């Protein structure tokens, strides 16, 4: 709770219904800090002018009446300051008949007494005495017991009609102390759980950011992989076309090779025929020359032999 904010609201407080309800709603929101709220209210009460005391008491009354069914926090917290505040406000109020401040304070105390807001112990008796209330006028619980039993209470008002005259604030506080202690322990455990939840929330936020970043990265790579697949399919199609072209070229090469082999065989055959013809012609020529030599006269043979024995003379 912000102390400065509450003091500012108390400084702006006036006696209108809206102003009091607005300030009371702010105080009721901080029920777990009821002692601090009551202390700040008392500090402002003591520092305020006399004519503002009744307005501040109206605010305290609104907080007390609207919080009593939810727990005793505000009742216990304000009770530490109410007797002194009532005594001061009643004692400082003007005594002339035209001023209604004392009547309003008396009416507040009578209401608290009738509703057993602070119990019926000696402290409440002293508070009644502060305002000049006597036993006849103290409240329905002391002077009207038969009237309290005359009409059966409805179920929804049972909580308000329970007789708590045997309990004082101190007794009620002592009885509630174990429950309050357990509530405080539960509150501490709840705080630890909230801290854990906060830690997990922060961690989850980091994980969520990482997941988001990972999702963006995954989408990027998915797009890249998709583009790669398209390029691979296009390359595969090109490879198939190239393979088909190579197949056709290989078929043509094989056809040319077969043609070349056939031509080579034909050339070799032709070479063999030509060589055979040359050999045959040479043989025929040799045979013809041998026959001519054999048929020539001996003189001619001798002349030829002499010619063959002559030395070479250069010309």
Automatic annotation (TrEMBL):
Residues annotated as transmembrane: none
Region (Disordered) residue spans: 138-161, 278-315
Record Gene3D superfamilies: 1.25.40.90
Domain CID: 1-134
GO biological process: mRNA 3'-end processing
Superkingdom classification of source: Eukaryota
Biased composition (Low complexity): 144-154, 289-302
Acidic residues bias spans: 303-315
GO MF term list: RNA polymerase II complex binding
Protein name: CID domain-containing protein
């Amino acid at each position: 709770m912000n102390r400065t904010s509450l003091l500012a609201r108390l400084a702006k407080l006036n006696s209108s219904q809206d102003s009091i309800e607005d300030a009371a709603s702010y105080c009721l929101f901080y029920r777990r800090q009821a002692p601090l709220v009551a202390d700040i209210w008392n500090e402002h009460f003591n520092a305020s002018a006399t004519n503002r005391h009744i307005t501040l008491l109206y605010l305290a009354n609104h907080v007390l009446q609207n919080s009593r069914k939810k727990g005793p926090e505000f009742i216990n917290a304000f009770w530490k300051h109410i007797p002194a505040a009532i005594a001061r406000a009643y004692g400082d109020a003007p005594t002339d008949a035209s001023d209604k401040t004392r009547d309003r304070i008396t009416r507040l105390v009578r209401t608290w007494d009738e509703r057993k807001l602070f119990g019926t112990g000696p402290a409440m008796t002293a508070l009644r005495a502060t305002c000049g209330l006597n036993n006849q006028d103290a409240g329905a619980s002391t002077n009207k017991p038969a009237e309290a039993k005359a009409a059966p209470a409805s179920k929804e008002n049972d909580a308000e009609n329970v007789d708590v005259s045997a309990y004082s604030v101190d007794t009620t506080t002592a009885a509630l102390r174990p429950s309050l202690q357990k509530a405080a322990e539960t509150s501490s455990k709840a705080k630890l759980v909230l801290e854990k939840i906060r830690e997990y929330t922060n961690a989850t936020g980091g994980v969520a950011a990482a997941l988001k970043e990972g999702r963006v990265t995954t989408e990027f790579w998915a797009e890249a992989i998709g583009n790669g697949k398209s390029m691979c399919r296009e390359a595969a199609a090109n490879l198939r076309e190239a393979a088909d072209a190579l197949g056709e070229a290989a078929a043509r090469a094989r056809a040319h090779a077969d043609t070349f082999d056939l031509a080579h065989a034909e050339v070799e055959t032709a070479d063999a025929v030509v060589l055979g013809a040359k050999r045959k012609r040479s043989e025929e020529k040799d045979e013809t020359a041998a026959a001519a030599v054999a048929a020539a006269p001996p003189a001619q043979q001798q002349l030829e032999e002499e010619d063959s024995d002559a030395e070479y003379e250069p010309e």
